[in-house]
Design brief:
- By secondary structure, this protein is an alpha+beta fold.
- It has three helices and six strands, in the order ββββαββαα.
- The longest helix has 27 residues, at 103-129.
Amino acid sequence: MGLSCSCDNDDADWYYVGGDEFSILATKRSRKCCSCGTKLMPGSEVVKFERFRYPAYDSIEEKILGSDAEVYMADWFMCEECGGLAMALAELGFCLNLGLDDMHDLAKEYGEMQREDLARKRSLIAAAGA
């Protein structure tokens, strides 16, 4: 998907909260990083994302729970490295698409954006000084 500052997710299939602090993976089985796919062992330092969705329109869930109820889904986790990158990118104002973006690729994209911006600024300064 790439880096984006627009968080327009009104029609998303599911949503998440969390992802803003490190914790210990407190599961009995291993998990995979939702960014890079690294195997996460119980006791590893991770970043946890709690996921939920809204009931499907005109479904049994909606009839039982109501249309505004949150249906909880399995939590997703990021390894320590991807989680740190995700927190840094979120702090810079970028929106993250869990499961679609590899945080390493997004960090590289951000670095390229910064290099291009610096080159543009240097050319403007050089043109102004000439």
